[in-house]
Design goal:
Layout lengths: L9 E3 L2 H8 L6 E4 L12 E2 L8 H6 L4 E5 L5 H9 L4 E4 L4 H15 L6 H10 L9 E4 L1 E3 L4 E2 L5 H8 L2 E3 L13 H6 L4 E5 L19 E4 L1 H5 L8 H10 L5
Parallel strand pairs: 1-2, 1-4, 2-3, 4-5, 6-9, 6-10, 10-11
Antiparallel strand pairs: 7-8
Length: about 250
C-alpha cells in the first residue's frame, strides 16, 4: 500500500529493510525490531520482534509508513496496524530479481527517495555471476530440533543456485520443509550448507550431524537479507562455499 502523505517517519519490521532504509535515508527511521542489528549504531525505538511487534507502540510513533514482509511478519499484526490507520507496505521476495525490484519500489515509490547508489552496486555485483557449469548437490538446513531445510521458491535458494549449489529439496512442495536427519543423510548430499541465521550454525554445532559431508558455513545476513549486503554477497558467499570444513 502506498502512503497517503509524504513519508517522514518509518518503522521497519524487517532487519534487511531496516538496513536498506538506514543506508539510504537514516533520518526516516523512528522504529525497528529488536532483531534489526544493522547498522550497528542504529538508535531508534525498539518495538519488539518480527513475530510479536508491539502494535500499540508502533501506532504511538505516528509513522507515515510501516514496512514489512509477507514471510517475516504476521498478517494479524499488519491488520492491527492498518485498523489503527497506519499505512503498511508489504514486500514479497522469492528470488534475487524480485528483491532488487522490490527494493527499488519501496525506496523510490514507497518512501519517495532517489534510487540509492548501493542498489545499483548490488545489481551490478550479481550481473557477472553466471550459473556455473559444475554444481554441487546440497542440503541447506535453517533449523535443527526439528531439522528444517530450504525448499522451493526461496530467496536464499535462488542465490545459492546462482553460485553453483543445487538444493536437493528445491522441488519440495513446502518452502521450508521439516526433514528428519536420517532422510537428509540418505539423500547423499555432496555438501551441507549451514548459515548462521535463523539458526546459528557454527563449526561446533551442525557439521557433526553430517559425518563425511563437507560443511560450508555461510553468513546468514548475506544469504537471506536483501539490502546493502547484496553488493558484497556474491564474493563473500562464493569464498565461503569454496572453503567447506572437511566431512
Amino acid at each position: 500500500m502506498a502512503p497517503r502523505r509524504p513519508v517522514r517517519r518509518v518503522v521497519s519490521l524487517v532487519p534487511s529493510l531496516t538496513e536498506a532504509v538506514a543506508a539510504t535515508a537514516p533520518e526516516l527511521l523512528v522504529g525497528a525490531t529488536d532483531w534489526c542489528s544493522h547498522p550497528a549504531d542504529l538508535a531508534v525505538v525498539r518495538i519488539g520482534g518480527t513475530k510479536n511487534p508491539d502494535t500499540a507502540r508502533i501506532a504511538a510513533l505516528a509513522p507515515d509508513l510501516v514496512i514489512a514482509n509477507e514471510e517475516e511478519n504476521r498478517a494479524v499484526d499488519l491488520d492491527a496496524l492498518r485498523a489503527a490507520g497506519v499505512p503498511v507496505w508489504v514486500t514479497v521476495v522469492r528470488d534475487l530479481d524480485q528483491a532488487l525490484g522490490s527494493l527499488d519500489r519501496l525506496l523510490t515509490g514507497g518512501c519517495g527517495l532517489a534510487r540509492p547508489d548501493w542498489l545499483d552496486r548490488a545489481a551490478a555485483a550479481w550481473q557477472p555471476v553466471a550459473e556455473p557449469a559444475a554444481t554441487r548437490s546440497a542440503v541447506v538446513p535453517i533449523w535443527r530440533r526439528p531439522w528444517m531445510v530450504l525448499g522451493r521458491d526461496t530467496f536464499a535458494g535462488d542465490l545459492l543456485r546462482r553460485l553453483g549449489v543445487r538444493q536437493l529439496y528445491a522441488d519440495h512442495p513446502d518452502r521450508y520443509p521439516r526433514i528428519p536427519l536420517p532422510e537428509l543423510l540418505a539423500a547423499r548430499p555432496q555438501l551441507v550448507v549451514l548459515p548462521d541465521e535463523p539458526y546459528r550454525f557454527t563449526a561446533e554445532d551442525g557439521p557433526e550431524a553430517f559425518p563425511g559431508v563437507p560443511a560450508a558455513l555461510l553468513s546468514g545476513r548475506h544469504l537471506t537479507w536483501y539490502g546493502p549486503s547484496l553488493a558484497e554477497a556474491p564474493t563473500l558467499l562464493a569464498a565461503q562455499l569454496a572453503r567447506p570444513l572437511p566431512g
